[in-house]
Amino acid sequence: MFRTAVPLSLILATTVLAGCASTGAAGEPTRVSEDRLNAHIAALADDAMEGRGPTTPGEEKAVQYIAAQFQALGLEPAGDDGGWFQTVPINRFVQEGPASISAALPGGETVALKRATEVIANSHRPQARITVTDAPVVFVGYGVDAPERGWDDFKDVDLTGKIMLVLVNDPDFEVPADSPVAGKFEGQGMTYYGRWVYKFEEAARRGAAGVLVIHETAGAGYPWTTLQNSSTAAGLDIVRADPEKERVKVQGWIQQAQAARLMQAAGLDFATLKAAAQRSDFRPVTLDGVSMSFDIGHRFERLTTRNVAARLTGTTRPNETVMYGAHWDAYGRAVANAAGDDIYNGAVDNASGVAAVIELARLFAAAPRTERSVMFVSWGAEEAGLLGAYHYAAHPLAPLETTVANINMDSLLAGPPSEEIVVIGYGKTDVQDRLARDAAVEGRRLIPDPAPQVGAFYRSDHFPLAKMGVPALFAAAGFTGASEASRDYVRNRYHQPTDEWTSPWDLSGAAADVALLYKVGRDLANGTDWPRWTPGNEFEAVREASASQRP
User: What is the pairing mode between strands 343-344 and 250-255?
Assistant: First the structure.
């Protein structure tokens, strides 16, 4: 547990003063300040912030602090109704009472399935009880519809009112190198199509009653216990315009052994079906005589959280926007560790990212205005599922079709500069070419995420905007395991109360990374070109379609 030596109000006041812009003789700002980065991290990770949990008193302190920094730097408010905040309505879903989950098998046998140990099932529909009765079960392979990759697992089969059984990860995840499918997706590097989130969304688009992802540790990247341990936690989702179209009644996971049992009852073999699903000619397979029923106690409540948004209006093309973003939230107060500390201070994740965005705002505010506008956003409820960013994607404060690029700041580590800069989502857009050029001048180089199978590109705040076509750059995150310092952080502090600021850190490496990302953003903000997704990327078509909407 850590508390700074001075009250939070004094930290805020002195940090605002310290953040006032200073410029060099040519009118350009001085270099990135380690002192300012440290001051912002210390303030945001202080115990007085109570872990910055969404919808808690810690949120109010955090968002007011960030807004005060933006205001002191002379930025313009870019939130709702000319203010600093964008309100994000969210639903909170809680299990209430017992749940009944069963499968009817051929021959009249009904099998009860144990919640949490055999099946994890919940719902993000805002209704009092979730009931599905005798829904037919269909195996849909990997559940992927990716026309740009020549892949369609559905083949126009009607899934209305049915339960989809779907494999985790991408169709080429486990195929041999000489398979005709090898390289269709990204092999060991998971695409969005491999994520369970996509599979839930696709089930809703198909009108299914429910979807269960078949858990296999290799494909998921984590054991069943990871799912089981969080299975009773409350779920959060943004308020959907049409929840019945955007969310199935029942979504969740099923143990591989239980899925194989249902298949066997229908005269099918799991291994044979999985092998068939790794071919592009796969068609959905109905489990004849098998149906599933769910009766789940469930309640929901409406809450709100907030994004903080500021901008500097461009001089000649103000309707074109370069964006920097970082989520402000951590986990609030939760389970205490062995030392009795129950505050998840989130110093690295993600007070460091917010500190970087505030420092970037200082640099831009002190320099001559750019031709395009620059927006600075601190997202709410990232840890709950990127909810602030998802709400923004549905209700943008600047048009997405004219948002040039989104540069994400998340989890900067202490320590000296590294020769290597990890890019999560390496090769997905040409935004990284600008970073590679500037890094090379300093004798540094870009490397891919060393654990692409985890799918980190799809788990941070740039992603909801990427789904809408906005090119993203996500570099220098500290949780990739690319260095011993990163591995130590993941083992000992990541998402734990020990992620604290204890004394001034050596932030020379973070400062060097922020300086490079400032150059990238400034180049984009004074340019005329539009960054692009790599040909064949899953978001390329969305971006190309939105290009026709630009003035």
Answer: unpaired
73 neighbors 362 (Cβ within 8 angstroms): yes
- Residues 6 or more apart in contact with residue 384 via CB below 8 angstroms: 54, 90, 236, 329
DSSP character for 31? Answer: P
Half-sphere exposure in the Cβ direction for 100 (13 Å, CA): 10
What are the Cα distances from residue 529, in Å, to 136, 396, 408, 436, 462?
A: 51, 22, 20, 17, 20
Sign of CA dihedral 171, 173, 175, 178: positive
Contact 165/139 with Cβ under 8 angstroms? yes
What would the 3-class secondary structure string for 228-246 be?
HHCCCCCEEEECCCCHHHH
Contacts of 532-538 with CB under 8 Å at 24 or more apart are: 532/429, 532/430, 532/471, 533/428, 533/429, 533/469, 533/471, 534/427, 534/428, 534/429, 534/430, 536/148, 536/149, 537/148, 537/428, 537/429, 538/146, 538/148, 538/149, 538/191, 538/192, 538/193
Tell me the C-alpha distance between 373 and 319, whole Å.
7
Q: Is omega for the bond preceding 350 within 30 degrees of 0, making it cis?
A: yes
- How far out from the chain centre does Cα 270 lie? 32
CA–CA distances in Å: residue 403 to residues 11, 218, 320, 397, 549: 34, 37, 6, 10, 12
Q: What gap in Å lies between CA 374 and CA 381, rounded to an integer?
A: 23
Distance CA 407, CA 517 (A): 8
Instruction: Give pLDDT tens digits for 200-249.
Output: 999 999 999 999 999 999 998 889 998 887 777 778 899 998 988 999 99
Per-residue tokens: 348: 């690295």
Burial (CB count <10 Å: 0-12, 13-18, 19+), residue 532: middle
Q: Contact at 8 Å (CB) between 185 and 171?
A: yes
* pLDDT digits 0-9 by tens, 422-460: 999 999 999 999 999 999 999 999 999 988 877 889 989
What's the rounded Cα separation, in Å, for the pair 404 and 200?
29
Distance between CA atoms of 40 and 34, rounded to whole angstroms? 10
Query: Mapping DSSP to helix (H, G, I), strand (E, B) and coil, where does residue 362 land?
Result: helix
Q: Is 426 exposed, middle or buried (0-12, 13-18, 19+ CB in 10 A)?
A: middle
- The pair of structure tokens assigned to 439 is 């890094």
pTM: 0.87
Q: Which helix (H) or strand (E) element contains residue 542?
A: helix 540-547
Q: Residue 83 in contact with residue 269, Cβ under 8 Å?
A: no
Q: Are 246 and 256 in contact (CB under 8 A)?
A: no
Q: What does the alpha-carbon distance between residue 184 and residue 456 come to, in Å, rounded to a whole number? A: 20
Among 451, 477, 485, smallest CA distance to 222 is for 451
Q: What one-letter code names the amino acid at 506?
A: D
Q: What is the dihedral of CA 71, 384, 390, 518, to 10 degrees?
A: 50
